Amino acid sequence: MVLGTALLGIVGLALDGGSLYVTKQRAQAAADAAAQAGAMDLYRGYGSTAATASAAAYGVKNGFASSEVVTEYPDCSTLAWCNGHVTLSGVDSPNLIQVTVTKVVDTVFLRAVGVNTSTVKAVGTAAITLERQPVPILVLHPSASGSFSKNGTNTIQICGGPVRSIQVNSTSTTSISISGASGTVDLSHAGPLDVSGDCTAGTGADFGNTGTQNPYPGTISLGTKPGQYISPASPIADPLLDIAAPAQPAIAGGYDTYAPGQHNCPSDLPSGVECRLYHGGYYASGIQFGSSKVYAQFRPGIYWINHGGLQFDSNSIVRMAQGTDSSDPTGITTWTRGMLVYNSPSSPVNTSNDIITITSNAGQLQGGYKNPTADCPNGGNCLVGSPSDSAYKSILFFQNRATATTLNHQLQGGGGLTIRGTIYLTHTAATTATDGKFQSLSLQGNSGGVTKVEGEIIVDALSLGGNSTVTMNLLSAATFFVRQVALVR
After folding, report:
1. Phi, psi at 325, each rounded to 5°
2. Residue 387 burial by Cβ neighbours in a 10 Å radius (0-12, 13-18, 19+)
3. Could you give the C-alpha distances from 272 to 82, 269, 293, 360, in angstroms and in order?
4. Which segment, 10-19, 63-72, 106-115, 178-187, is predicted with the most confidence on average?
5. Does the N-terminal or the C-terminal CB of the chain have fewer CB atoms within 10 Å?
6. 30, 64 Cβ separation under 8 angstroms
7. Largest CA distance in the chain
8. Contact status, residue 43 vs residue 57, Cβ threshold 8 Å
């Protein structure tokens, strides 16, 4: 009799144990999902009341009664593992949510030995975390359909960088729009293993899409590690939002003209081409070349533009000048390298002209002259953003966030285009949600040239097109702190 009871207990433990294990897995998944849902509400600033409701709703959605889902908000400072990984209270308060799912399970076989119930408990903890990393492409519009779009036959290739290469923040179920034979998003050689950013050692990186859109609606190559398309994904906040806009310079911008062979103007410039050296300052009417044949060099500094935008046209080449010059006006910056173009059109805004534009035929002069050099090996247009150790953190193009007009900027690489720096064109998610205005960028890779970006693209909406590869090279060194929601325990 004793032996029979023991055997029954063993069999009952095995059978009920399997059932309890399954329940434990379900409870853990529910706790994790509930914690992440609550943390998303904290991230959006909705507060603990909304977060608690979201956590309970996700618990119920996963098969548990609301009474079985308990939500708490621990103080990060009391947890040894928390500091340095979670945002400081005051920036996000509360910033940490812990969800405990408890289920009392009736046993079946163990009742024979007097065990009628067993309690299953699972804990999920999520927080608004701080991660120091660059994101090569960050599309900020909070709700637009097609905020990330792709057309033509080009391939966008990212080399190096963090574990996430592309992040689209729109919650739309059609946040990604693919039209025609649009080529590939190639992340197979991205990621932190490619420390040199040259697509030789990377094994893959993630594409995050806040909208629920599965599978990815086009062709994507993610690599092997980590290599994931994540949808829905937690949005990533604008990492440059705290960077203040430059003050309008008191000094007028302008340029001097030099003969071939002088001030690094190429001695073999085609006949009729004007070599200009621009300096920083206030440009009331923008920078355009019109029908002129121009080889332009830009001195280090800030180019603050009101109306007229920055427009590089056909039969033009733009380069960085070799440092400062004694004839340059002083009092703008002390930079010895790099430039910042700040586009700040005053009202009324001309949507056709007050934009940043590099046309598909820019980057070469008549006869196909491109002038490859050591710092611009592919020839064409080559520009370098502000110094990384300056207040502007490598930004090259900076659109005034307060421009309450939708502007469509265009960068095309028919004659060759190399940008070393960050393209930052945004109206901020908060103001976009209020007035519906935003900043968009069309980035094209066209035949006959190389389009290459060494840095980040942070814009409200992004359209990739053309028929040639657009390559982004990014070193794995950390650049910015970004806030995002993550499971932490």
Report:
1. -140, 150
2. buried
3. 65, 8, 7, 21
4. 63-72
5. N
6. yes
7. 110
8. no
Residue burial 66-83, b: 16+ Cβ < 10 Å; e: rest: eebbbbebbebeebeebe
Average pLDDT over residues 123-143: 84
User: What is the per-residue pLDDT for 7?
Assistant: 46
Place of tokens 């611009």: 376
Gap between the Cα atoms of 128 and 112, Å rounded: 48
Q: So where are the chain's domains?
A: 2-132
Query: Is residue 138 within 8 Å of residue 161, measured between CB atoms?
Result: no
Strand, coil or helix: 57:
helix
Residue 28 phi, psi dihedral angles, 5° rounding: -65, -45
**Within a 13 Å sphere around the CA of 393, how many CA atoms are in the beta-carbon half?**
17
A 10 A CB-CB count for 368 gives 10
Sheet holding 439-445, edge to edge: 176-178, 148-150, 461-466, 439-445, 407-412, 356-358, 310-312, 287-288
Strand partners, 464: 150, 443
Residue-level pLDDT at 112 = 60
Is 35 within 8 Å of 94 (Cβ atoms)? no
Contact 298, 323 (CB under 8 A): no
Comparing CA positions, the residue from 124, 52, 128 lying closest to residue 88 is 128
User: Does residue 116 register a pLDDT over 50?
Assistant: yes
235, 172 contact by CB (below 8 A): no
Tell me the residue ranges of DSSP E strands in 174-223: 176-178, 184-186, 206-209, 219-221
